Amino acid sequence: MFVLVVGGGKVGYYLTKELIESGHEVVLMEKELERARQIADEIGSVVIAHDGCEGKYLGEAGCNRADIVAAVTGDDEDNLVICQMAKHHFDVPRTIARVNNPKNEELFKHLGVDELISPTRMILGSIEQDIPVHELLHLAALGEGELELIEAHLQTGSPAIGKATQDLDIPEGCSLFAVIRDGIATPLRPETILREGDKVIAIGRQECQELLHDQLIGETVPAS
Amino acid sequence: MKTVIVGCGRVGAVLASSFDQAGHEVIILDLTSRAFDRLPSTFKGTALRGDGTDEDILRRAGAEDADVFIAMTEGDNRNVMAAQLAQEALGAKRVIAKINDPLRADAYADLGIAALCRTNLMADAVHAYLDMPVSGRKGILEPTGSHPGGEHHEIVASSTNTVSAGSNVAPGASGAVPSGSQAVPAREV
Questions:
Q1: ipTM for the complex?
Q2: pTM for this one?
Q3: Largest alpha-carbon pair distance within chain A?
C-alpha cells in the first residue's frame, strides 16, 4: 500500500512512523524545510520538503499512484484542498482528512473527501458521555430574576417529538412561545407539531423547570 | 447587486470601493479590523471582522443570497474553501476565487468555481508589455464543470452554468439584513 501523508506535525510524524513500521510505502510532505529535515533525520528519506497543496509537488510526490492520501495538517482549508486535488486531479481512490472545526465535516463530505477524522468531535463525544448535555439551556433571567428564558433542544428520546404543543402538560406559570426550526424562528401555536431537532423557547418560573424538563427533554437518565 | 468579498487586501479593498461607488451593496470580510484601513472613508458598505472559511460567519455576512461572492485572501486554499462554502453550502450565485497556483486554478474551474489566477494574469501581462508571445492562459478561468458532490464520482462537464449565472441576478432585497437564521446569535457566546 502506498500512502501519501501531507503535513508533518505531530499527527503526520507519528502516522508516517507507524505506517513505515507496519511495512507500507510512505511519503510525507512537509512544507517547512527545517521541520522536514528534522523528520528526515529521524525516520529516513521519506520526506519531501514541499507544500502538498501545490499541484506540481503533489504530482512529484507520486500522488497519481497513491492508494491513500491522508491530509493531516492543522488547517482545514489545506486538508480540503489536498484531498480534492488528490481525488479529482490524481484519481486517488481513498482520501482522508483531518478536520478541526466540526462544522466543516458536512462540507468536506459533500465535496467528496472519503473519510474525516475530527479530533474535536472525538473529544467532544467523549465528554458528552459523562456530562448530560440534553439539558434546558438558560438564556436569560427576566424581571426580578424569578422568570427565566429557556431553550430546549428536542433530541432523540424527547417525549414531545410528534406531539402538538397543546397536548403537552405544560406546568402553570410557564409558556412556550417560539420554535427555531432549520434556523428560522416561528411563533409556537397550540397545533404546532414538534419535531426532532426543534429548539423550543420558553419562559417560566424556576420551580416549574423540572416538569418542563420532563416534558421536553425526557426523564433524566443518570450519567453512566 | 449584493457582493460579498472575503479578504480586505489591496485588491479586495479596491474592488469593495469600486463596487460600492457603482451603487452595489458590498459586505467585506477580513480577519483583522486593521485591514479595513485600506477602505476609503467614503465606503458605505459593511466591513465585518471574521474568518471567511467559517460557515456561520459567511451566513452572517449574507453570503446566502449574494449575487457575487469573491474570495480574495492571500491563501489559495482559504479562497477555495470560502468559495466552495458559498457555492455548495450557501448557494451564492456567482463565485470567484483567487487561486494563484495554475494547476489548482484549472482543477477548481473544472469543479465549478471561477478561478482568478494571478500567475497567469501577470505572466501574460509582462509578455504582452514586452511584445513577446503570450501563453493565452486566462487570468480568470471560467467554471467548466460543476461539483459532483457525494463520494465516488466523475467530473461532469456542463456548459450551462458558465453563462446562466449572470442572467438571474436580482437586485431586489438589497440592504435587507439577513433573514430568519439570525434569530439565534444570542446563544453563540
A1: 0.70
A2: 0.67
A3: 73
